[in-house]
Amino acid sequence: MKAMKLLSLSLIALLTFSACSSDDDAPELINQEEVITTLNVYLTPEGGTEMLAFSYNDLDADGLNPEKTTMPLSANTTYTGRVEFLNKLEDPAEDITVEVREEGNEHQVFYLPSTSLDLNTTYLDTDVDGNPIGVEFRLQTTTVSNGILTFILIHDGNKFAAGASEGILSDSVGGETDIEATFDVTIQ
């Protein structure tokens, strides 16, 4: 009888350990969203030098009370622009712009001016599928005006949604907002 109990326990132990084989598929790694504390927008007017036109700093990454700086833009001017994304919680600061470019098919920057602001933007960079990324862009001002300009970096949005390739952000684009920064802009 004692041998029977010992044999039963051995069989249960054998079945338990064999059910936990080491050849199971490894768990899928989850790609954590990047932390972006800083958005810098550099503009270069035709024939001029590059300047830091807009800067958004949320150094505690809580979205509350970010520091913002803006420079006035000149009317009837074409600027070449670039956006820089940083994580300043790292030391030294991590340049997230590199990741945005490398994963260009998963990212798109949208530039959204209020209706009172007389400017338009054009994408200058594309992903492997020919869809816009928006790290590099052209900004053209027209008449003197004031308004709001919002920069939004969307992760995993639908770049094939109606209007997305022209920079129109709609619900059909979807995705997650990695960072959104709004600036009061004066065109003089």
Give a brief description.
Residues 1-21 form the signal peptide. With 188 residues, the chain is mostly beta strands. Helix content is 13%, strand content 38%.
SSE layout and pairing:
Elements: H1 2-19, E1 38-45, E2 51-57, E3 67-70, E4 78-87, E5 94-95, H2 97-102, E6 107-113, E7 119-123, E8 136-141, E9 145-155, E10 176-187
Antiparallel strand pairs: 1-2, 1-4, 2-3, 4-5, 4-8, 6-9, 7-8, 9-10
Radius of gyration of CA atoms, rounded to a whole number: 25 Å
Largest sheet: 7 strands, antiparallel
How many strand elements?
10
What is the third-level CATH name, the topology?
Answer: Immunoglobulin-like
Structural class: mainly beta
- The proportion of residues forming helix, as a percent range, comes to 10-25%
The first-level CATH class is given as: Mainly Beta
Query: Approximately how much beta-strand content do the residues carry?
Result: 35-45%
Number of domains: 1
- Second rung of CATH, namely the architecture: Sandwich
What features would you describe in this structure?
The chain is mostly beta strands and 188 residues long. It has a single domain (33-187), classed as Immunoglobulin-like (Sandwich). 13% of the residues lie in helices and 38% in strands. It contains 2 helices and 10 strands; from the N terminus they run H-E-E-E-E-E-H-E-E-E-E-E. Strands 1, 2, 3, 4, 5, 7 and 8 form a 7-stranded antiparallel β-sheet that branches. A 3-stranded antiparallel β-sheet has the order 6-9-10, with no helix packed on it. A hairpin with a 6-residue loop joins strand 4 (78-87) and strand 5 (94-95). The longest helix is centred in the first third of the chain and has 18 residues, at 2-19.
